[in-house]
Amino acid sequence: MTDRQLTEKIAETVKEAGKIILSASGTDYGTDSKQGHANYVTKYDRKVQEFLHERLSSLLPEASFLGEEEGEDVFREKYRKGWLFIVDPIDGTTNFIKGYYASTVSVGLFKDGKPYIGVIYQPYLDHIFTACRGCGAFDNGKKIMSSSLPLCDSIIAFGTSPYRTDLWQKTMKLAGEYLMKGQDLRRSGSAAWDCCMVACGAAGLYFEFSLGLWDYAAGAVIIREAGGVITDIYGDELKFDGPSSVLAYGRGIDPAELVYPERSNA
Ligand code: 2AM
Ligand code: CA
Q1: Percent of the chain scored above 70 by pLDDT?
Q2: What's the pLDDT tens digit per position in 182-197?
């Protein structure tokens, strides 16, 4: 199987998983709170993850599986060799619970600890973003490139890391600074979606102070294949081995215009 064929197979599976999200009805989401502020899991997160675990494991039996919701959710040294699926079954769980129609299914495939394939599906809009290393990035099969516009003509997307209440001042300060430098701000509630918006050029830049690996694993491949840049929020290389801050931006942004926050140990 070629890399493109494997990407297509993963995309088919991820689209099927999206149907589980669309099938959710009523108000009984079986919602449980997780650690931290505004951090939830529903029975649908678990269902989608189970479905993906089973289907992706039969697609690539030699791959390990790391998912947000159950089982293995911590990056291990052994993942630096071979294949690893990194899955966020519902990215934007709060949106899902509230009926905000802005959640995604995100599947990254790493090879030897580095992002290799990325697939992100927004089931409400029926848009699937795909990329594999060296093959380019696509939105519903159409090739995409990140924006060539400068910061002053760009939408700035950001996330608020709501489960980390200690980060709100830093987040809002940076958002304010970018509001003055860019065109306007957006906050979608799904980090994976924000990555797609940078990849296709709708947004020029995206930042968030704290994300799980599953929130940005797939997005990183899609952004890079679309000619964009993704680093941590200080401009340092992403390590792809656990939680991190994220800064992503399109081709047109002059790095000299970026605003780097002060470093802290948080
Ligand atoms: P989620 O909906 O899958 O939890 C919103 O700012 C972004 O942060 C979403 O992509 C959301 O993903 C993510 N997020 C929410 N809680 C998180 C946590 N405890 N750790 C890391 N990311 C989280
Ligand atoms: Ca997530």
Answers
A1: 97
A2: 999 999 999 999 999 9
User: How far, in Å, are 11, 108, 189 from residue 141 at the CA level?
Assistant: 11, 18, 25
Q: CA-to-CA distance for 193 and 28, rounded, in angstroms? A: 25
Q: What is the pLDDT of residue 73?
A: 81
Minimal-distance CA residue to ligand 1 atom 11: 92
Residue-range domains of the chain with CATH: 3-144 (3.30.540.10), 151-265 (3.40.190.80)
Report whether pLDDT(265) > 80.
no
Cα–ligand 2 centroid distance for 1 (angstroms): 29
Bridge pairing between strands 114-122 and 244-249: unpaired
The tokens for 86 are 């990194």
Q: What is the mean pLDDT of the chain?
A: 95
Q: Is 189 in the pocket of ligand 1 (CB under 6 A)?
A: yes
